[in-house]
């Protein structure tokens, strides 16, 4: 049965959205096309009508995941205009974010996977990281002068590292300590 162009595009967007979540949860190689397409409610045969390869889907799903992450940062900042940095830290370095692997930070979830792929897969991560840095620079610009870019890099590195470590350890108290310590240190860096 043929589907309309509109339905085909809706199906394609569904696959990208589902892949965005499942790749973050399982990694690029941790889920096969059959399971991915099944989760999207489609057959595996439909995949190659929509995407050139799994890598093509990885690029598009990564772009979607990073756009989603950027929207979450923006929503947090909008919700707390008096302390936008605190709002970002509050959701990013939280136990809840630690637990939400499928909707969490794509850099944490897929960074090491992306590093093993080609330039096409790395490109959306680089763009997303640059967006994170620009946002952090704006958030700390009132307290900084010349070292704005390097401080934003240090803050982002600490945030990604703390969330990664918090996800790796089994002890929830140790995980929370990494998150809480990162919040305090980011505040110190931003205020220095």
UniProtKB/TrEMBL annotation:
InterPro entries: Homeodomain-like_sf (IPR009057), HTH_TetR (IPR001647), Tet_transcr_reg_TetR-rel_C_sf (IPR036271). Residues 32-51 bind DNA. It comes from the Bacteria. Residues 9-69 form the HTH tetR-type domain. Keywords: DNA-binding, Transcription, Transcription regulation. The keyword Signal does not apply. This is TetR/AcrR family transcriptional regulator.
């Amino acid at each position: 049965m043929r589907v309309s162009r509109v339905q085909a595009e809706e199906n394609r967007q569904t696959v990208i959205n589902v892949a965005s979540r499942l790749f973050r949860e399982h990694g690029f190689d941790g889920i096969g096309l059959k399971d991915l397409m099944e989760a999207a409610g489609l057959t595996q045969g439909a995949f190659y009508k929509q995407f050139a390869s799994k890598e093509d889907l990885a690029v598009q799903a990564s772009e979607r995941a990073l756009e989603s992450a950027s929207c979450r940062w923006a929503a947090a900042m909008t919700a707390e205009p008096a302390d936008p940095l605190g709002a970002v830290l509050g959701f990013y370095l939280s136990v809840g974010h630690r637990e939400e692997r499928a909707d969490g930070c794509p850099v944490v979830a897929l960074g090491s996977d992306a590093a093993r792929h080609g330039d096409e897969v790395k490109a959306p991560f680089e763009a997303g990281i640059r967006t994170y840095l620009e946002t952090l620079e704006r958030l700390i610009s009132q307290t900084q002068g010349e070292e704005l870019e390097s401080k934003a890099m240090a803050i982002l590195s600490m945030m990604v590292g703390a969330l990664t470590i918090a996800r790796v350890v089994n002890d929830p108290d140790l995980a929370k300590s990494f998150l809480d310590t990162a919040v305090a240190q980011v505040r110190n860096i931003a205020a220095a």
